Amino acid sequence: MTDSTSRRGFLTGSAAVAAAGAVAAGSARADDPAITEVQPWAQMLGDGVDARPYGHPSEHEAHVVRRHVAWLTADPISSVNFTPLHELDGIITPNGLCFERHHGGIAEIDPAQHRLMINGLVDTPLVFTMQDLMRFPRENRVYFLECAANSGMEWRGAQLNGCQFTHGMIHNVVYTGVPLKYILEEAGLKTNAAWILPEGADASAMTRSVPLSKAMDDCLVAFRMNGEALRPEQGYPLRLVVPGWEGNMWIKWLRRIEVGDEPWHHREETSKYTDLLENGVARRFTWEMDVKSVITNPSPQAPITHGKGFTVISGVAWSGRGTIREVHVTLDGGRNWQQARIDGPSLPKSMHRFYYEFDWDGSPLLLQSRAIDSDGMIQPTKNELREARGYNSIYHNNGIQTWHVRENGEAENVEVS
Amino acid sequence: MSRFPEFLAVALLAAGPAFAGDFGLGRPATEAEVAAWDIDVRPDGEGLPEGSGSVAEGEEIFVEQCAVCHGDFGEGVDRWPVLAGGDGTLASDNPVKTVGSYWPYASTVYDYVHRAMPFGNAQSLSPDEVYALTAYILYLNYVVEDEEFVLSNENFGDIEMPNVGGFIFDERPDTPYLAQGAPCMSDCKDEVKITARAMVLDVTPDDETNPGGELVVVETPVEPEPEPEAAPAHDPELVAEGETVFRKCSACHMVGEGAKHRVGPTLNGVVGSPAGQADGFKYSGALTSMAEGGLVWDEEALAAFLRKPREFMKGTKMAFAGLKDEADIAAVIAYLAAQE
């Protein structure tokens, strides 16, 4: 990456342009060489149609990547990286930027060798090939997938300085897949069936117990995301979609679903993904992801570089219990709140995009957003969460995030009284 | 909802066409196919294969295949999971969630070890080996006390984990919702102060040259191991042998200049001293009461402790099965005696 295309170079360049603009405003405006000089791309021919058979972003966007935090995990294989939320807009996450969480690395599966088995409390245990699965009626649905540990590092206080790291264990894509109900009914459910155990084909053979009621409600067995085949890191060729529920349950590289009458209490629903309370007792089977929002711009990785004047605050909101009915934004740390403007599709269990436009006078800001979902759940403050659950819960931190924006436009992750 | 008319349209689409099922897709799975993939185990024992393994067998496999990440005694190396200890920490500021302190069911250990371990060589262990490893991990956590204990599909149901009662169902909503009142919109507080800042911690990956960031922890600088001083009172050869044996202990104990307490106390000058004398180390109740009873770590007492730690001191925190070779015991005591 050359300096001029790096994030730092881009920001420095923007600041320089802003400064030049400020100077020019007071005197005769200098001619802009971006206009007066013929640029190379305006004169010479570019690449032909097949130069990039699978397209990729401009080289000037090379800083827009998933990133990981090395100290979080013992190694990069059983680890996690983060979606660059501060570089995105709208509600759809591009496939290559969807955060990754693996427990045994990425399984590289030949779809011709992939099978889905249904066994357990069914009339006939069945095996499906990918071709079989694509012959079922399919649906298209937009859902967010959020890791239950998203913002988990922030339970004890402001820690990571950037919404990519504080809130980036989430993505939002349109899935194409088969309602799980159709597949289970094809095998025929026994009357005592009450739970399913989806299992991955990767080296961790990931499993989670899912109640049958959810499986029969809105779960999908998906093979496409944003129109194309799932990415290997997202479970190619097949993953479970468990709308609104914690990401760990969305088994990737799905190879088997067992039907049973009891939950299995496997590692990921006992040792992990249980929410330890202050008294040492832990909640288990805390599946729904609660209402949450975050301002993505400005934020520590995306400062205001244009100086004072009209500006746009942008962010995302979502709830595993339905749609987002309102988002409020405060500029003064929660003393006064304004309605934000939700723009774009408002779909259940999907990200929503919100904006709040205002004329910034250049004074410091304490920015927060607060979402309310269609169930009437209000995004809590971090202290309200701590009062309810203590400091050791790790999971399901949907608390209100504060960014402190200084006069120079730089932002920091802080907490306020 | 009138603000979002598109929501209604979406709701109609989501209803979708209704299908009655029976598409005639897929084929019956064979018994062998189901057996090959159906590896899951439940707390009631459903799914356990026939087999058995002892604590001692488990220890051998563990040291060979697991200790590189989890440590010889499940103490965890670097940031790899800690498997043992942590009793009584769940309500503290620093909960240590291990198999013994947290996991509600032993079946989870069997299931997970078989399906996902060893890391990078999953599903390579035989049922007997998985029973043995499960037995050893239970032993490290005092869930079973006897080194001769053999775990099998027959007696699996007898195992009760200490924290089996430590879980409750989801109690949400436990934070405000609209029916309790709309949230405040103006003049909600008198003043606002910044109470915490991420930049004080500085743990964020910042740019391409430092992509991972660093966790701010005070690391003990790694000093070169000081050469044991071969004072005439000590047999230099025996001390050198003892230094080799002491590697087994060094996961938990430090000796020499600059030694600090780790999982276990520093051991400088321990030989010949009264028990429980290392400043600032929190000893087990068992050790404290034996110290009050006048226990002195002379060579005889140390040898007995190192031979069978849990027999010599019932309730010790030292998760070490003991040294089997008398020569090793003599050597490590000589090495410790050389550390003033």
Describe, in plain words, how this protein is organized in 3D.
The complex is a heterodimer of chains A (417) and B (340). With 417 residues, chain A is α+β, with helices and mostly antiparallel strands. Chain A has two domains: 199 residues, Sulfite Oxidase, Chain A, domain 2 (Alpha-Beta Complex), CATH 3.90.420.10; 123 residues, Sandwich (Immunoglobulin-like), CATH 2.60.40. Helix content of chain A is 14%, strand content 29%. In chain A, the strands form six sheets. In chain A, strands 5-4-13-8-9 form a five-stranded mixed β-sheet. In chain A, strand 20 and strand 21 form a beta hairpin. The longest helix of chain A has 20 residues. Chain A is globular. Chain A starts with 6 loop residues before the first helix and ends with a strand. The N terminus of chain B is likely disordered. Among the domains of chain B are: 120 residues, Cytochrome Bc1 Complex, Chain D, domain 2, CATH 1.10.760.10; 102 residues, Cytochrome c-like domain (Cytochrome Bc1 Complex, Chain D, domain 2). With 340 residues, chain B is mainly alpha-helical. Chain B has a two-stranded antiparallel ribbon. The interface between A and B is large, with 108 and 93 residues. Strand 24 of chain A pairs antiparallel with strand 5 of chain B.
